[in-house]
Write a structure and sequence with these properties.
Largest sheet of chain B: 2 strands, antiparallel
Strand order of the largest sheet of chain B: 1-9
CATH class of the largest domain in chain A: Alpha Beta
Number of domains of chain A: 3
Radius of gyration of chain A: 23 Å
CATH superfamily of the largest domain in chain A: Aldehyde ferredoxin oxidoreductase, N-terminal domain
Number of strands of chain A: 18
Shape of chain A: globular
Strand content of chain A: 15-25%
Distance between the termini of chain A: 29 Å
Shape of chain B: globular
Helix content of chain B: 10-25%
Distance between the termini of chain B: 16 Å
CATH topology of the largest domain in chain B: Alpha-Beta Plaits
Largest sheet of chain A: 6 strands, mixed
Oligomer: heterodimer
Strand content of chain B: 15-25%
CATH topology of the largest domain in chain A: Aldehyde Ferredoxin Oxidoreductase,  A, domain 1
Radius of gyration of chain B: 14 Å
Largest interface: A-B, 46 and 28 residues
CATH architecture of the largest domain in chain B: 2-Layer Sandwich
Strand order of the largest sheet of chain A: 2-1-6-3-4-5
CATH architecture of the largest domain in chain A: 4-Layer Sandwich
Helix content of chain A: 40-55%
Structural class of chain A: alpha+beta
Structural class of chain B: alpha+beta
Number of domains of chain B: 2
């Protein structure tokens, strides 16, 4: 908390929880924040100190949730970072989610919460400032991610705003592509946090509290806040996100052959119009909603009204969120042209608690592998897999849900595992075993998926570099350096708690000013950039210890044969880019070693 | 005629809590939603359904009537004035407010009176709330 008088860095605390012994400890980690800022950087330090020899589902394997000094303080600093060892890739697991979690952790008085150990049976945990309650919950077994929130929001009442993180049945089954769902429709989607929570019998986490910092320089704070608010609300910087949302990308991506279609067979989807952001907004969008302390409101909720018992005119309404990635994964990449079918599939995925991208890409692999003969009707127990067959996809998901046979159980292990069991590696759209996001704009999109510390399109936005090159050609090395620098810079944003959608709101000088207001002095642009490289190196050091080798991350064979926005790809250039990226990483790791 | 806080487009609320943060910042120099004199409520499992509970600026406030010590009194034009010195921390005022619009400060154990200042309105991005000229004894909510 700030005190009157001179600015100084506020106190930051870690809540360290041992699920096995149901004990917890509060630790002052202000020193770590003073050096590393917070968020993903401090999570990385805390992860590394747990040791590198624990398997993802080892009872002692840690899960760390972290927020930054901007969280809950400034607009659109809404992201909580989760770090763990990924059961999908077996190296660094990192995933980010919005909702109310950052606000609630701040209110509870913890910028970091670390879980180790395992509950003896299915349970959940309630964190309410200094009180932590461990609660058995076998009655929640098999309960959907959506129902679990309804139940716990009613049962765990609080005078303060709460956030609820929970897993669905997929996480309980320890699927390495299971997500953890946060409040209304936000997710720690990628890399299998849901499976890790499931391995700990940790069904849900409820966080609340009313703690807060006070402002010691009211005039400066109000002026700074107003400047941010005006940029977020009144400038064009964030307009895209609350207007059509990222779904606005569907049509333009297809127009430049950049929208993955039928398992990345092409970048043009003939039905892009039908599943576009414009179509969803016109016919299905019921409301935009926001994460706590984000005036943008990028969460697009669709309403689907359906009849049942036709003779009685009975009607039901479902609400489910959508965005570009979801429409790609369950629309174009599976050749689904009906928005209603996309929404029905998304609801199923949401209830089970899979990562929507991973499960969608795995199903797309299955369809093509079936068509090419790697999978037979014997494997599918008679089911015929075609692109565009939404009804068959529902049947697939139902069979995965009940563990119908070996093939369907394999599907929730992810595409790379399936390809290792059944063949068809060339058709398997994974990078470092993580299923690919929804852009096939060219070399840098794919190199970005490969080199990103979390193998996400958000690590360095390579797809954006591809599009820039289309307009203004750039040397390979120069473009690669842009991607590397962007990857490092985003470490700073992810350490402060800033949502990457607001990356253009928070320029380096703006960040320095905000940090100074909070007592973090002398974080000028050069220091921030240097820090970003250190954080990036810290993560790569862990990834390498866990066996990750960027120079060996394959480009799926199929992608050398298809047309992207940038035309056909050269595998040689892909290798060249990754090798150079890897050299820069090595240099920064060496620099980090000298600093430590 | 009094200028009072009103919910004018409830359905446009996106649940960002910007109004609550603004109120807490302005009146308590506190970075939180929990010091705000209004509340945006969300309901479990109902994505996008928000209910905004601002002080309605009652002419004859139930909260003030319930106060046994005279800490809460009627404000000219509607609403309440609060004298913290007189507060007995009993919470009867909060219980008396039917829409639960009067908020409770868990730290001081006192009510959080709305000053009808409109700072929350200035930080609402979607015109959900507004300061409205209300004739004495007029409608309490849009």
């Amino acid at each position: 908390m700030f005190r009157k008088g001179a600015r100084r860095v506020p106190d930051f605390f870690l809540l360290d929880i041992d699920l096995t012994n149901q004990q917890y400890e509060k630790r002052n980690i202000t020193e770590l924040f003073s050096r590393w800022l917070g968020g993903t950087a401090v999570c990385s330090v805390l992860l590394e100190e747990c040791g590198m020899d624990l398997e993802p589902y080892d009872p002692q394997a840690p899960i760390i949730f972290g927020i930054g000094p901007f969280s809950s303080v400034f607009p659109v600093a809404t992201k909580t970072v989760a770090l763990f060892r990924s059961p999908l890739t077996n190296d660094l697991g990192e995933s980010h989610a919005g909702g109310r979690l950052a606000m609630s952790m701040y209110g509870a008085g913890y910028h970091m919460i670390r879980f180790r150990g395992v509950f003896p049976s299915l349970s959940y945990i309630v964190i309410d400032e200094d009180e932590v309650h461990f609660k058995r919950a076998n009655s929640l077994k098999g309960m959907s991610a959506l129902a679990t929130e309804r139940v716990l929001r009613e049962r765990e009442d609080s005078q303060f705003k709460r956030s609820i993180v929970r897993i669905g049945p997929a996480g309980e089954r320890r699927s390495p592509i299971a997500c953890a769902t946060v409040d209304a429709s936000r997710h720690f989607g990628r890399l299998g946090l849901g499976g890790v929570m499931g391995s700990k019998n940790l069904k849900a986490i409820v966080v609340s509290g009313g703690r807060y910092w006070t402002i010691n320089d009211r005039k400066a704070m109000n002026a700074y806040y107003k400047k941010l608010y005006d940029t977020v609300v009144h400038s064009s910087t964030m307009k895209k996100y609350h207007n059509l949302g990222t779904a606005m990308n569907i049509i333009p991506m297809s127009a430049i052959n950049g929208l993955p279609t039928r398992n990345f067979s092409q970048g043009f989807f003939e039905s892009a119009q039908q599943i576009s952001g414009e179509t969803f907004a016109r016919s299905y969008l019921s409301q935009q909603i926001a994460c706590a302390h984000c005036q943008t409101g990028c969460i697009h909720m669709a309403t689907l009204r359906e009849t049942y018992h036709l003779e009685d005119n009975m009607v039901k309404t479902i609400k489910v969120s959508y965005d570009h990635e979801l429409i790609y994964a369950w629309g174009s990449n599976l050749s689904i042209q009906s928005p209603e079918a996309v929404l029905r599939l998304l609801l199923f995925v949401e209830k089970q608690g899979w990562d929507a991208i991973s499960m969608g890409v795995t199903v797309a692999w299955a369809v093509e592998a079936f068509q090419q003969g790697y999978i037979t009707q014997e494997d599918t127990d008679g089911l015929i897999l075609n692109f565009g067959d939404a009804q068959a996809y529902i049947q697939i998901l139902e069979r995965v849900q009940r563990g119908h046979n070996r093939f369907f159980r394999s599907l929730e292990q992810g595409a790379a595992y399936c390809a290792s069991q059944y063949g068809g590696q060339d058709l398997c759209m994974t990078f470092g075993k993580n299923e690919a996001p929804g852009y096939m704009t060219g070399l840098f999109a794919f190199a970005g998926y490969a080199s990103g510390v979390r193998h996400s399109h958000l690590d360095a936005a390579g797809y954006s570099i591809d599009q820039t090159i289309l307009q203004q050609p750039m040397e390979l090395q120069q473009a690669n350096r842009c991607m590397y620098d962007e990857a490092c810079w985003r470490m700073v944003l992810n350490s402060l708690g800033i949502c990457l959608f607001a990356r253009n709101v928070y320029a380096p000088s703006i960040i320095s000013e905000g940090l100074s207001l909070l007592g973090f002095e002398a974080f000028d642009e050069a220091r921030l950039i240097s820090l970003g490289r250190s954080i990036h190196a810290l993560k790569y050091r862990m990834k390498r210890k866990w066996g990750f080798d960027l120079t060996k991350v394959k480009l799926p064979g199929k992608l050398t044969k298809v047309m992207t926005s940038a035309g056909k790809l050269s595998e040689e250039e892909y290798r060249q880019v990754l090798d150079q990226f890897d050299k820069w990483v090595t240099e920064d790791i060496q620099r980090l070693g000298v600093q430590s | 005629m009094a200028r009072l806080l009103r919910v004018i487009h409830r359905e446009q609320c996106i649940g960002c809590y910007s109004c609550m943060y603004a109120c807490s910042r302005h009146w308590f120099q506190a970075i939180t939603v929990e010091k705000a004199a209004l509340r945006v409520k969300n309901y479990h499992g109902v994505e996008g359904a928000f209910s905004i509970r601002p002080c309605y600026g009652c002419i004859d406030p139930d909260c003030a009537r319930s106060c046994p010590t005279g800490a809460l009194t009627t404000r000219k034009g509607g609403g309440i004035k609060f004298d913290s010195e007189l507060c007995a921390h009993c919470g009867l005022c909060v219980q008396a407010c039917a829409p639960k619009a009067l908020q409770w400060d868990a730290f001081t154990e006192m009510p959080i009176p709305c000053h009808q200042c409109g700072i929350c309105v200035q930080f609402c991005p979607n015109d959900v709330i507004a300061m409205v000229d209300v004739p004495e004894g007029g409608e309490t909510s849009a």
